[in-house]
Amino acid sequence: MAAPDDCPLCREDGGLLIARHDKFRIIRATGADAADFPACYRVIWNDHVAEWTDLAPPERGELMQAVIQVETVLRAQLRPTKVNLASLGNVVPHLHWHVIARYDWDSRWPAPVWAPAARERDEARLAKLIACLDTCDAAIAALTL
Amino acid sequence: MAAPDDCPLCREDGGLLIARHDKFRIIRATGADAADFPACYRVIWNDHVAEWTDLAPPERGELMQAVIQVETVLRAQLRPTKVNLASLGNVVPHLHWHVIARYDWDSRWPAPVWAPAARERDEARLAKLIACLDTCDAAIAALTL
Q: Which own/partner contact pairs does A59-63 have at CB distance under 8 Å and 24+ positions apart?
């Protein structure tokens, strides 16, 4: 599909670039997106494609392998209570997978990150988590994908 | 992992059973879960496993193939504005994939289904969508998986 002029994921990386590959890139969310969930990564298909089933099977395999490897790194580095995976794309219909480390102390737990906040942010625990992200980013950047 | 006594997806199908396979089942959400999003299907791994990366690669391949086929049926039968895919499991950490047909008239659009409602339900459009579900269910039940 041709890239629509107004697609932000065609124009920009969409966050802090962690790894750029031929067909996809891995970014970490920053700014307001990451305030409550700093360990929020996205694996973004470079071409403008809307749905998971718009990809040919080999490409889907490649992209899912990246999602799997990112989840593996997050589990090893950040020891989350749960990993959340999602491909929604309602606002930006450009194929991307969210890979998010969730904790039983986070502001929405156990609801999805998109639910209203259930409690205040735990700034001390968030700071500890943020301190681990450079190492996590480096492990993702080092993946052979 | 042994099934914990309190896991609802170990005890029950988890919705209207559409197809039962050796390693997974496909259900359609019913009741309150489905009031705003009647075309909400779940592909549920039968064994109690929490994370996507807890599955061995061949099993992950089988389960993702089912997700892909369900998305394909939903697109063909229900013509959604967008398909949403998610594996969260914060409340019930028993591996399941949500495959949800979303519409630009639904009560949360374009937010995720877990966000607060943005508008009233469109009962007339919901009724038309619900009228298509028997055919959609039958197409999913007929899949070779």
A: A59/A23, A60/B68, A62/A23, A62/A24, A62/A145, A63/A23, A63/A24, A63/A95, A63/A97
Q: Which residue of A has its CA nearest to B94?
A: A82
Residues B60 and A68 sit within 8 Å (Cβ to Cβ)? yes
Asked if B14 and B41 count as a contact pair (C-beta separation under 8 A), the reply is no
Per the DSSP assignment, residues forming a β-bridge with B28 are B16, B41
Q: Is B58 on the interface with A (CB under 8 A)?
A: no
B94-136 pLDDT, tens per residue?
A: 999 999 999 999 999 999 999 999 999 999 999 999 999 999 9
Cβ distance B115 to A114 less than 8 Å, yes or no, reads yes
Angle at B17 between CA B43 and CA B13, to 5 degrees: 75
ipTM confidence score: 0.97
pLDDT of residue B9: 97
